[in-house]
Amino acid sequence: MIIEIYGSNCIKCERLHRNVQNSLLETRISAEVREVNDPDELTAIGVTTIPTLIIDGQIVSKGRIVSIKELNVILKGFQS
Questions:
Q1: Which of 7, 30, 32, 61 could make an SS bond with 53 (beta carbons 3.0 to 4.6 A apart)?
Q2: pTM reported for the whole predicted model
Q3: Which CATH number applies to 2-78: 3.40.1550.10, 3.40.50.150, 3.40.50.300, 3.40.30.10?
Q4: What letter would DSSP give residue 3?
Q5: Residues 6+ apart with CB under 8 A from 61
Q6: How many C-beta atoms surround the C-beta of residue 26 within 10 A?
Q7: What is each CA distance from 33 to 18, 44, in whole angstroms?
Q8: Each residue's pLDDT tens digit, 25-55
Q9: What is the SS3 assignment for 1?
């Protein structure tokens, strides 16, 4: 599983990253977590709202901090 957090090193982005890490620990799911902060990369995929959370190429959330509880459910849904 590849989890990408698109943002600009803002507080919301940092909180989302922490929540993702905590959710992975709670659910014991293994994933590669990438932070994408390069404006050119954000523009290339059409990200206009940050933070944007993408899991395995699917946009899961835009412009908000997803809670650990909600992430637990989302991540389990992406498990193969």
A1: 61
A2: 0.91
A3: 3.40.30.10
A4: E
A5: 16, 51, 52, 53
A6: 13
A7: 11, 19
A8: 999 999 999 999 998 988 888 888 999 999 9
A9: coil
